[in-house]
Structure formats: structure tokens, C-alpha cells
Amino acid sequence: MTPQLNVAIAGMGLTDQGRHTGSSGRELRRQALDLALADAGLTRPDIDGYILIGASFEDLRYLGLSPAFAYSLMTGGASPTASVLVAAGAIATGQATTIACVYGEAYSSAPPKLLPHTTGGTERDIRSYSYGYPYLYGMVGPASTYALAARRHMELYGTTSEDLGRVAVVERDYACVRPGTQGYGQPITLTDHQESRMIVDPLRLLDCSRPTDGGAAIIVTSDERAADLTDHPVSVLGGGTSHAIETWWKETMFESMNVDRAARTALGQAQLSIDDIDVAQLYAPFTIAVLMQLEEYGFCAPGEGGSFVAEGHTGPTGSIPTNTGGGQLSGFYATGFTPLSEGILQMRGQAPSSQIPDARTCLVSGSGGNGGIQGSWSHATLVLGADR
């Protein structure tokens, strides 16, 4: 039997999320930590483990922490989801009891890095957006990778641009009634999607997310301690990881996000099937990622993602409400903390809009990093449970 994790999320802090906020990434991390500590009823001395999503070795001094360990964790968009598993391991081995997992970035407030048409641009700048050696042949940025995945899905299953567009419309429907999202008060139609400009064929502007500034933090501790700290702990029922580099060796690149192992491990620990999941929060900075994950997790059959969304299954009254805060397309982009934070809110029954009644289980995914080739993402899955 797969061992249980026996950890819970006792506190969460989420700063305002937006563009050109003027705050630095470090300051956003401080704000998020303050909110998470207040939420859990804890103080800084209570934190004996620190996991930073990214790399900033001066955070501890600025944040005023004195933990037993401080890790920097970077596996792209899978990092926040994976940080919960790392925290669970540290707790299980006695390295810490109460761990803060913290993220904060100021993408739109920082000076631009990628300046290929000016003397300020360097090879190093461009390679930071390259995701492996294909940058030598002009593949720069994640949109080109997801565009290839979308094109392959179209070739295999007959998926259309309209199928992608319906994903964007559903997520905007969630976001347009959620204060603080990028899409608040701005509904879109399928026609709007089809008329938005092409970014990387076949992905249009409304198929794509854009980075936002913001901070997020969670406090991970044992089930028992979480129950003492808060009336609304969120149990981590299961977690798993996988890596899509396998598709490179199988010559199936862009056909799969390779979620199978992560899903099997997470659901096995939770002792649940995919049919037991009430709500899904998926890491999906592009519309095609929603369709691929709906299919690969088993919410619908391969190739049926487009019709599944068209039939309303991912909407608020559907069989699996998905990205209920607007996701990364229309909510905000805080890497893997976008789906994780919404999953926590749903399990607490505290979503400020689109709260799914009686939701007791939530699947959260994270995806990112690479194995040296475009599309070879890490993947991480959590199954969260409500304790309310």
C-alpha cells in the first residue's frame, strides 16, 4: 500500500495579484508570509522549515526567519505543488514540524530580460526563455511548445480552434465574477476568441496567459497540528510526480503531458479514483493544457476534451468544475500557486465566487521545468481534501 502523507495546509497567504504593482518579488514574499502566518495563528519563530519557490538566498534575513533548513525549489510550474511533497518528506523524517512554502515574483514590474533586437539583449537572456537546445532553431518561449502540442492534438483527434476557445470562455466566465482577477468584469465570447490575434499558430491571444505580479505562501504541518491550529485545515490526501521526458524517448513529444504516474501515485495515496474528485484546478497557461489534462487524468476519453468542455462539464454545475477562479488564462499567473490556492479556497468553502457546493475533494496539478528539450515538463499532482 502507498504510504500516506499525513500532512495538511494550516494557513495560506495570497497577496493582490496584478500587473505593474511596483512591489519587488521579495516584498511580495514577505507580504504573503505575513498573511499565511496570520491565517494559521502562528508567528515567525513557529516556522522551522522554509521552501522558496525559486532562488533568492537572502530571503531569510529579509523575512526574519530562523528555520532549521531553507530550500530553494525550482521545477518550473510544478514547484508549488511539489513543495508540498518536499515539506511532507521533511516532516516525516523529523527535519521540521511547520514549513512555509513561499512564492513571490514581480514579472511586470521588473526590467525586461529578453531584448533580442537591441544591444541590451544577450545570449544568456534569450536562453533563459529557451527550455533547451531548440532555441538554436528559433523556439523561444513556452507558447511555441504548447502550440506544437495543440497542432498535434488537432492532427490526432480533429480538435479545432473553437474547442480551444471554449476553454478560454469558461475560464473567463469564472474570472469575470471574481474580484481581483485579470478578467474581472470582462466576459468574452467564442467570437472574441476567434477574432483575437494569432500568437503562435494555432494559439491566439485568448489562448494564452500572461505573467502577473504577486505573492503566495502556505503553511504545511502534520494533520494533528493543523487541526489544533485552525478550524479549516486542508488535508493533503495524496501526491505524485512524473516527467514528460519519457515522451522524448518514446518519440511521442507534444502528444502527452505524461501525468499518468503522478496521477496514479496521488490517487493511490488518497485511496480514491478519478470519479471521486469533485473539482479540478489544473496548471494550464495555455488552453490546450486544459484539454490534454482532462483527457490524461481520465475525466474524459482521449480526443474528447473539446466536446467535454462544450457540453459544460468544466463549468460550475458540470461533472468536474475546473479552474474555478479563472485559472492562469483569466485569473492570474502565480505559476503553480494559481491552481493550488484556488484548490485550498474550494476545500475550505471560502472561494469568494464560484464556490462549488459540498466539494470535498480537489485535484491540483503543476507542470513546468524541462529535461533539456521543449515540452519535457515535470508534472506534480496533489489530491486535497476538505476537513470542514
UniProtKB/TrEMBL annotation:
Keywords: Transferase. It holds the Pfam family Thiolase_C_1. InterPro entries: Thiolase (IPR002155), Thiolase-like (IPR016039), Thiolase_C_2 (IPR055140). It comes from the Bacteria. It comes from Williamsia limnetica. This is Acetyl-CoA acetyltransferase. Residues 251-371 form the Thiolase C-terminal domain. SUPFAM superfamilies: Thiolase-like. One of its GO terms (molecular function) is acyltransferase activity, transferring groups other than amino-acyl groups.
